[in-house]
Structures are given as C-alpha cells and as structure tokens.
Write a structure and sequence with these properties.
The protein has helices at about 40-55, 70-80, 85-105, 115-125, 130-145, 170-175, 180-190, 195-210, 210-215, 260-280; strands at about 5-10, 10-25, 30-40, 225, 230, 235-240, 245, 255-260. The chain folds into 3 domains: about 5-55, no CATH class; about 70-165, DNA polymerase, domain 1 (Orthogonal Bundle); about 175-280, hpI Integrase, Chain A (Orthogonal Bundle), CATH 1.10.443. The strands form 3 sheets. The chain has a 3-stranded antiparallel beta sheet with strand order 1-2-3. About 45% of the residues lie in helices and about 15% in strands. It is of the alpha+beta class and about 300 residues long. A hairpin with a 2-residue loop joins strand 1 (about 5-10) and strand 2 (about 10-25). It contains 10 helices and 8 strands.
Length: about 300
C-alpha cells in the first residue's frame, strides 16, 4: 500500500493515498483509485484498507455518474426505447429547455429537497405545465436510486405550488371554446371560401370530436359512406429530424364513430374535388383524405392552406 501524501486546501492540511484494489473481473484491467480529504495518515490508511476489502468482496462501486446530467444521459437512452418517437422528442425538449439548464451540473448525491423545491417554484412561476416538468425531472432521480447512487428521491418530498391561473372561473374557461353559434358562423364562412378541403377538414373536426392528428392520418378506406361511419386507427405525428410519420392513436385503441349524413356528404364532395386536383396521382383506397399539394402529409404545426 502506498504512503499517504500531504496536501493543503483552503489553508488546511489533508492526506490522500493512492490505492491499488486489484483486477476488474469484467475487463481484466487493474483498478486504482485515490482517497483524499483525510485529516490524518492513519485515517487515510484505514479507508484504503476498507476500500480494498470492499473490492475483494465485490462491494466496490466506482462513481461514474458524478452529475445529474450524467445520470440523465444513460436514462434517456433507455427511455427512448419505451415510448413513441413523438413522446421522446417532447420529453427531450422539456429536459433541454427547462430541466438540464437548472440541474444538469449538480452532483447527484448533493441534490436535496431544498434544491428541488427551489426549481419547482421557478418552473411554476413561468410554466403552465410545471407539474409535467417536475415529473420528468423526478424520473432521473428515480433512475439514480436504481443505480444505488442515492438512497431517496427528494422530489417526492416537495410542496407543489398552486398557480393563480389554476383558479380560473367557469366563465373564463368557457371563453376558450366556440359557442354553438360561433362554430356555425365559422363553418359558414369557410364554406364560402375557395378552399373546400379546409371546410371539409374543420367540419369533420367539429362534428366528429377526433384529434387533428387523427384526421390528417385518415385514408379513404377508413370512411364508410354506406354506414356513415369513420374508423380511427392511427394518427399523424412528428418524429426525429422534423419527420412526419403515422403512429397509433393517443390511447393506443382504435375506434369507430358514427357520423351525421351532412358531414359525410361534405366528405364525399371533397373526394370529388380531390380527384380532379390530383388526377392520376390519386392512387387507391389508401389515399390520404387530406393531403398537401405534393399529395403527402400536412404539417401538424401549420394551418391548412389547401392546394
């Protein structure tokens, strides 16, 4: 065993010692480490002996996850394999924009309730969805517990702030939606515009209750004009590199909805318009009901502008 070496920090005298622990059975490499911060030679030597015994008994764990960012980097690799591509991108953005700038550099074992409470309060002051941010930030510390880097997750002990916006009156909430009269006026205006697809699209959303991504993923084989029914089996979403792709519905469950005859007649009329616009590009029953000028998916982030 090496002899402890003296060093000074903030004017105080300390000892450190380099310890050869043995050979890693997995890699075959020699394992060395340094113990520092000891106040006496005896303390340094005693810690060195304890560490060597722990290694020989298979209890030694080298600290490879120093910071919250380190733990996140490994957690996110596993998380990506468990969720839809669109969910993974949304989660990655939350970490990039809110969590990692606040907590990424913290040493994982130093994160306590006070630190977690501080950042939850900050997120609550500026974010409507701060509970979602907190939930994701907590997942990384749950993972750190699984790695035996920490004994408990301090996010479990914080007090959740209440925002004033959560106390909206019923009247304030209702103003976020069209009344029946406003919706009728909106659709009447669209019908008079020179873009029948936009009218058909919003009429379908209004009378079916389906999500926009579900409507944009519809193909003509999903629509049964004889039974006045529409089958919803998929949805359009955005993945890596801004790529649009088809995924399962939000609930993962397919459903069939009964439609009113007028909406179905509007869709039937739109199909005629689409055939004239696309000509020989109109393929078969798998043709998208609502497609862009290139007969491809419409972007979820853009208003439908038609052809």
């Amino acid at each position: 065993m090496a002899t402890p070496v003296v060093y000074y920090k903030n004017g105080k005298k300390y000892y450190k010692i380099q310890v050869y622990l043995g050979t890693d059975p997995l890699t075959g490499k020699r394992v060395k480490t340094t113990i520092s911060g000891c106040k006496t030679q005896k303390e340094a030597q005693q810690k060195a002996r304890q560490l060597k015994v722990a290694f020989e008994n298979g209890l030694y764990k080298k600290q490879t996850f120093a910071t919250y960012q380190d733990v996140f980097n490994q957690w996110i690799e596993t998380y990506e394999k468990t969720v839809e591509e669109s969910t993974f991108l949304k989660t990655s953005r939350i970490f990039k924009n809110h969590i990692l700038p606040s907590m990424g550099n913290y040493r994982i074992e130093k994160i306590n309730v006070q630190i977690c409470q501080k950042h939850i309060n900050e997120w609550a002051n500026k974010l409507q969805n701060f509970r979602v941010v907190k939930a994701y930030a907590s997942k990384v510390l749950d993972y750190a517990m699984k790695l035996d880097l920490i004994k408990s997750n301090p996010f479990k002990l914080v007090e959740m702030p209440k925002r004033k916006k959560e106390l909206n009156t019923k009247e304030e909430v209702e103003t976020q939606f069209y009344t029946k009269e406003e919706l009728k006026k909106f659709l009447d205006c669209l019908e008079k515009e020179n873009n029948y697809m936009v009218f058909a699209f919003f009429r379908l959303l209004a009378y079916s209750g389906m999500r926009k991504g579900e409507a944009l993923a519809l193909t003509w084989e999903d629509i049964d004009f004889n039974a006045n029914e529409i089958s919803i089996t998929k949805a359009l979403s955005r993945g890596k590199d801004n790529r649009l792709y088809i995924k399962s519905t939000k609930t993962g469950i397919s459903r069939t909805i009964k439609m009113d005859k007028k909406t179905m007649d509007i869709l039937k009329e739109w199909k005629k318009h689409q055939k004239e616009l696309l000509g020989n590009k109109l393929l078969n029953s798998k043709q998208l009901v609502f497609s862009n000028q290139n007969n491809d998916f419409y972007s979820l982030q853009k208003l439908v502008n038609g052809y």
